[in-house]
Structures are given as C-alpha cells and as structure tokens.
Write a structure and sequence with these properties.
Layout lengths: L1 E10 L2 E10 L8 E9 L2 H8 L15 E9 L9 E5 L14 E4 L5 E2 L6 H23 L9 E3 L5 H12 L4 E5 L5 H7 L1 E6 L1 H4 L10 E6 L3 H9 L1 E9 L13 H5 L3 E4 L7 H14 L2 H4 L3 E5 L3 H9 L6 E5 L3
Parallel strand pairs: 8-9, 8-11, 9-10, 11-12, 12-13, 14-15
Antiparallel strand pairs: 1-2, 3-4, 3-6, 3-15, 4-5, 5-7
Helix pairs in contact: 1-10, 2-3, 2-8
Length: about 325
C-alpha cells in the first residue's frame, strides 16, 4: 500500500528533497509499523532538510525526529494495533526513517505510549523541544532547586525548549527570567509565565569568571559564551541544565563558578534517554502545560509545505511551534 513521505536523496551537488510516493516494502526494518498522525519541524529536521549541517547519516532518508501515531502492526506484545505512541530521538531522521511520512516502521523499544491528558497534535506541538524542556526542569529539581530559592533563567526563550521551559517552571511555582533577542515576543513570554525579560546580548559578550549572583538556576539551550556567563552569574550551589548549542558548541568559561560557588552544570541529553525518563517527562508535560496559552503558538502545515518551512526556520523567520499533519 502506498503512502506519502518527505524524502531526502543524495545528489552530485549534495542532496535533493521531494515529496515521494512510497510503498510499505520501502519501509526500513523494525518490529512496529505505525500510521503516523503528526510530526513536527524540529530544528534538527530543518538542518537536515536544508543541508545546513551533516545531520543525515545515510540516504535516502525520511527526516522527522518526532512522531505520534497509531500502531498498525506489531511483532512485540508490548504494543498492539490501536495503541497510540510517541517517538522522539534515537537517531530517527538521521540513521533511520522518521516521522515526516504517513507511515513509519520502528523498534518497539524506542516507543512510549501517548499519556492521558495530551492529544496527538499537542504532543507534536511539544515534540523533542517540550520533552527536552521537561527533562531540564526535572534535572534542576533532582539537584535540589526549589521555588523560593531565587529566579530561574531561561536562555533562547523564544525557541522551543525555552518556551516550554518557561511554562513548566511557572507551573512549578518558579519566578522565571527569559533571555531573548526578539523583544517583540516579550508579551508572549510573559503570557507563558516569564516575570522578567532580558536582552540576550547581556550574556553573549565575554564576561568575568565570576559575576554578580543573579539566578538560582538556569535552563540553557544556547551554549557558547552565553552558557559561560550564565554559570558565572548563578547563585551559590545553583544548577544550570544545558541542552543545546544554538550559539556554539564551545564553552569559553572558567572553573570558578564550580569550585568557588559549588555550581552544578547538568548536561541534558534527549536522544538516547532511557524509557523511564521519557515517560516521566511526557507525564509532566501532560500534567502541567496550559494549552490555552500554548495553542496560539501552533501552526499546522502539510507535508508539501515542510521544505519551505525548514528554510524559514533556518533563516530565523519562524516563531512558535510548527506541527506537521502528515495526512493533510
């Protein structure tokens, strides 16, 4: 039976992207076949689709690091036909065909069930960004960060991780400071729960090894000089959860915050995370998000609009969350 998919193929000039008509026999190996409902346009997908970074490891490739759908066939008793499931990460969309298609074949040990309290479209509004934000907030809490300790900084606040981090931290009772380079989005960030907005340029220039103590903790999806400055201005025994590199992979910082203030730099990976952590993060999203605030952020597109949307995302011309209805 045929299905539609976004397909990235290798060419002499680099790569090409097309909307392809494929057959079930084209699907890769796996013990669960899924009728996909929605995917999302993750930044990693945009990099893959535009060839801006070497994300794709083998060709041809169906991109899409996230998907939600219904099990059509399973060779593992853990899942049965009709089960609604979520996929995030595991190298899908890089080494294994992903979610930007009407069908997917995956390994059952990569999947979790869609939790109660969150719809399929809302799950993909979250995608890897929301799931990673939940992991970051949980990392802060594991290290003892509590409401009342002081404000929590969120860098890259208008990005996916930033938006969901603000919402989750506010729901947990924290005072949130949002760092952004998009002042026009300030009102939206306040609606999500930010109590204060600062300009990202306050943190992007080289700073001192130790600065004034400004926040009890932080969620950073930026990296580079920003992360170094965030650590330098974190309060005694605070924690910084680092999960991204939007600015840089480098860390031009000092050990001073760690050995003089006892600051913890907690790295947060979402790609290879154990299933128990994934289930806990998604349960947190289902429980704590206020969708009346987040719904206006969601833009829904079809598979035929994915390539153009990826180019806009790389150019920094998108805001909010892009959900892909693969059957539209």
């Amino acid at each position: 039976m045929s299905f539609r998919a976004v397909l990235i193929e290798k060419t002499d000039q680099g790569q090409s992207v097309r909307l392809a008509e494929l057959e079930d026999s084209d699907l890769p190996e796996g013990d669960v076949t899924i009728d996909t409902a929605y995917s999302t346009l993750n930044y990693k997908d945009a990099l893959a689709l535009t060839g801006s970074a070497p994300i794709v490891r083998q060709y041809p490739m169906v991109p899409g690091v996230d998907l939600v759908g219904t099990v059509a066939r399973s060779d593992n008793i853990a899942f049965g036909p009709g089960d609604q499931v979520i996929l995030n990460g595991w190298g899908v969309g890089e080494k294994h065909w992903g979610g930007l298609a009407q069908k997917a074949r995956l390994r059952s040990d990569w999947l979790i069930r869609l939790p109660e309290g969150i719809s399929p479209i809302h799950a993909m509004a979250c995608g890897t960004a929301g799931y990673t934000a939940a992991l970051c907030v949980m990392a802060l809490e594991r290290n003892g960060v509590r409401p009342g300790d002081g404000p929590v900084l969120v860098t890259g606040a208008t990005g996916g991780v930033g938006l969901f981090s603000i919402a989750l931290l506010k729901a947990a009772g924290h005072e949130v400071i949002a760092s952004t380079g998009k002042p026009a989005e300030a009102d939206h960030l306040r609606m999500l729960g930010a109590a204060e907005i600062i300009d990202r340029h306050e943190l992007s220039a080289p700073g001192r090894p130790l600065g004034k103590e400004r926040w009890a903790a932080a969620v950073d999806a930026v990296g580079g000089q920003t992360l170094a400055n965030v650590c330098a201005q974190t309060k005694y025994q605070g924690t910084v959860a680092a999960c991204g590199m939007a600015e840089s992979l480098d860390f031009p910082g000092s050990v001073a915050p760690f050995i003089l203030r006892g600051v913890t730099l907690a790295g947060v990976d979402s790609v290879m995370r154990p299933i128990a952590d994934r289930e806990a993060a998604w349960a947190r999203l289902a429980r704590d998000l206020d969708w009346s605030v987040i719904d206006p952020m969601i833009e829904t597109i079809g598979l035929d609009e994915v390539e153009a949307a990826a180019k806009k995302q790389i150019a920094g011309q998108t805001a909010g969350r892009v959900v892909v209805d693969v059957n539209r």
